[in-house]
Specification:
Length: 259
Amino acid sequence: MSDPDSTPSPEPQRTIKIIFISDYICSFCYIGNKSLRDAITGCHDLNVRFDVEFRPFALLCQSSQAEQAKANGGKLPNRREYLARKFGKEQAEAKWKAVEELAQKAGLRLAEDGIVARSILAHRLAVKAYQVGGQEMQGKLNDIIFEAVFADCKDISDIEFLAEAAEKVGLMDKTEATAFLQDTDCKGCVDKMIDAARASGVSGVPSIIIDGKWALNGVQSTECYLQILRKIAQAPSTPNAACSAACMTEGTPIIPVHS
């Protein structure tokens, strides 16, 4: 017989895993990172915990960077030149105008130009940060790297810059970080994550997988992320219920992930 004065135990907090596949040279990933974080803050009243893990993707292969540098007198290409070569001048300008509008809405700094550099070293550091300090440490590192690319026009393939970033977030000191970056630690892990993303059909970023069930492709507004996260968080943790909740968000390209 139960005690009528007893109060029911609170339900255990549910954890919703979010995998954010991105590349640091992707402007939409820069914006999506901020929009998603703001949306998670907007779910503070729910009895859920979000665990966000950024995983790597490579938009720029080693050979293409070498070709770009060769065409640019040995220097890394600037962003406007890179986009013009890739899309044509007119389309590149239209795309960048859309980026500027989204960045302004998200409250992000955005320089007019920047350096396009391979991000593999940065990805290795980010994977290590998640292994050591979880989403909090990885998130701080992400902010530093994204701002370096899009606000401060820095070369994120530069070991000294990355070593300083590692020290700032408490991952390791500069000497340790330099040795880490000059070695091959976490390279195999990064390569496997990129290969796995491509094998699952990811061809562009950002690509977000929520709770292992739902994929959301392309950058979305904070409002869109918030609506999706709240509906998934409030639904029973079953695939069909999550589907019903997610599909209530009209016009959002969210699809089930098939195992």
